[in-house]
């Protein structure tokens, strides 16, 4: 009688050809088989070397110390999508270029593991020990697993819990990247960390709105370009207000200009006055009147604050 084969089928359409147990799954894909005390490292390496994917492998709590899963001679690493490495000991593992999309590395020991060029999109990194792990050129993907689930979750308590987990993952990755000098990646995860913290606050709370404003202004200190864009928007907006409300000047600069050219020059004057006011230079050759005075006072206050913010953000980025 022909034995039944494993019913596992990967997202890419690959079907496992191993004999199945009573659960309909083989030894490698059955999550109910405890492999904690089994010496599986050599078998896993042999399986990968044979060219078959490691998709969906259930390797929770296994000892995979110094395992070699590098696909040498190929631009693409071994496929290990959706695998379960929960609490697995993968210290000093060689996982260069390994495709770990959707895999669970929750509380896995990745001490000094080589994860350079690995693909971790959608993987679960909650509680993973990434101390001194190689993290250069890692493809982190657009969303963390907890982040993706939180956006779909309708229960407020569960959604808050998922954002807490996502914040913890970002903090862990950020700290390890900072220690390795990967400051661009660290900055990226710092912004995500602060956003996930904001999502845990009540929607109508002052702290949440303040956090949102800081994010819009400067990306939590990681995006100086946002400060520049905000400054330009303020200058242009105030210039249009000055042009509409009118300004006065002691000596007309264009006494003989009429028609549309006069309005054009007046607009240039408004832009000039807006720049001078925003930068708090205050030459005094053009002065506002009426409501424009209050707009000028507000712009001067906002300009001094924005320039100080830009210096702080710029210095923070450059000193790295």
From TrEMBL:
Keyword Coiled coil: no
Gene3D superfamilies: 1.10.287.70, E3 ubiquitin-protein ligase SopA (2.160.20.80)
Transmembrane segments: 227-245, 266-284, 290-315
Residue ranges annotated for the Potassium channel domain, each copy included: 232-319
Domain of life: Bacteria
The entry's keywords: Membrane, Transmembrane, Transmembrane helix
Annotated coiled-coil segments of the chain: none
Record flagged with keyword Nucleotide-binding: no
Pfam families xrefs: Ion_trans_2 (PF07885), Pentapeptide (PF00805)
InterPro entries given in the database record: 5peptide_repeat, K_chnl_dom
SUPFAM superfamilies: Pentapeptide repeat-like, Voltage-gated potassium channels
UniProt protein name: Potassium transporter Kef
Species assigned in the record: Salinivibrio costicola
